[in-house]
From TrEMBL:
This is Reverse transcriptase domain-containing protein. InterPro entries: DNA/RNA_pol_sf (IPR043502), Rev_trsase/Diguanyl_cyclase (IPR043128), RNA-dir_DNA_polymerase (IPR053134), RT_dom (IPR000477). Residues 31-99 form the Reverse transcriptase domain. The lineage of its organism: Eukaryota, Fungi, Dikarya, Basidiomycota, Ustilaginomycotina. It comes from Tilletia caries (wheat bunt fungus). Pfam families: RVT_1 (PF00078). SUPFAM superfamilies: DNA/RNA polymerases.
Length: 102
């Protein structure tokens, strides 16, 4: 767990928090290694999902038709590529043996 916390701090993914809420950390065994996870099931249950239709493949092809430049993105550590608005970060706080982070 210490290595995971240090790595997330080094990547600027987490920071110390003073949040009034926190979620538990769980270490999950996966393919012989331990994986750092935060149990956000309660937060997810209280979150109102966005609802909008996905574009159809036909509309995507119609948009791309005639275009000359395309790009591709390979997002390493993909889960951490999506930011959380600063005003909402306190909602993602988690507690571990060291301190409270979000």
């Amino acid at each position: 767990m210490d290595a995971a916390i240090k790595q997330l701090l080094d990547w600027d993914v987490i920071e110390p928090s003073a949040s009034p809420v926190s979620f538990p950390v769980v270490m999950v065994r996966q393919q012989g290694n331990w994986r750092f996870c935060v149990d956000y099931r309660k937060l997810n249950a209280d979150t109102v999902p966005d609802r909008y239709p996905l574009p159809t493949i036909d509309s995507i092809f119609q948009t791309l038709c005639g275009k000359k430049v395309f790009s591709s993105l390979d997002a390493i550590r993909g889960y951490h590529q999506l930011g959380v608005k600063e005003d909402d970060r306190w909602k993602t706080a988690f507690i571990c043996h060291k301190e409270l982070f979000h």
